[in-house]
């Protein structure tokens, strides 16, 4: 069971809100909105996605890694978390 299971509804709402923001950016481009205004919205979407990613990472650490500590499979879960953090830092 994923670590975000308890927050699945919240995560889904946030992602749908982000999806709406992205559609709004597409409309802005279609309507030839000023570049800086479009970039401002892109920045907002980027920050919103980063917030979701951090929440998911926190859930992974608090649920999946913690549970793996009890079963002795912690090394694999920590490696997964480290790889996810590396991908987030690169983006």
Number of helices: 3
Helix and strand string, N-terminal first?
A: HHH
Shape by Cα distribution = elongated
Question: What level of helicity do the residues show?
Answer: over 70%
The strand count comes to 0
Percentage of β-strand residues: under 5%
Classified in CATH, the superfamily is: Metal-sensitive repressor, helix protomer
| CATH topology category name | Methane Monooxygenase Hydroxylase, Chain G, domain 1
Amino- and carboxy-terminal Cα gap? 27 Å
Computed over alpha carbons, the radius of gyration is: 17 Å
The major β-sheet equals: none
Low-confidence stretches: none
Return the CATH architecture: Up-down Bundle
Tally of structural domains:
1
- Structural class label: mainly alpha
Q: Taking all residues together, what is the mean pLDDT?
A: 91
The CATH class, by name, is Mainly Alpha
Write the layout of secondary structure elements.
Blueprint: H1 8-30, H2 35-71, H3 74-90
Helix pairs in contact: 1-2, 2-3
Question: What would a concise description of this structure say?
Answer:
The protein is an all-alpha fold. It has a single domain (5-90), classed as Metal-sensitive repressor, helix protomer (Methane Monooxygenase Hydroxylase, Chain G, domain 1). It is built from three helices and no strands.
Detailed description of the structure:
- With 91 residues, the chain is mainly α.
- It has three helices and no strands.
- The chain has helices spanning 8-30, 35-71, 74-90.
- The mean pLDDT is 91.
Features:
mainly alpha; 91 residues; 3 helices; elongated; single chain; Methane Monooxygenase Hydroxylase, Chain G, domain 1
């Amino acid at each position: 069971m994923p670590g975000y299971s308890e927050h699945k509804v919240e995560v889904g709402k946030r992602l749908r809100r982000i999806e709406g923001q992205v559609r709004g950016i597409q409309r802005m481009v279609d309507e030839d909105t000023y570049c800086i205004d479009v970039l401002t919205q892109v920045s907002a979407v980027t920050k919103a996605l980063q917030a979701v990613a951090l929440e998911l990472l926190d859930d992974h650490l608090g649920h999946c890694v913690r549970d793996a500590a009890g079963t002795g499979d912690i090394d694999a879960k920590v490696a997964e978390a480290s790889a996810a953090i590396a991908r987030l830092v690169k983006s």
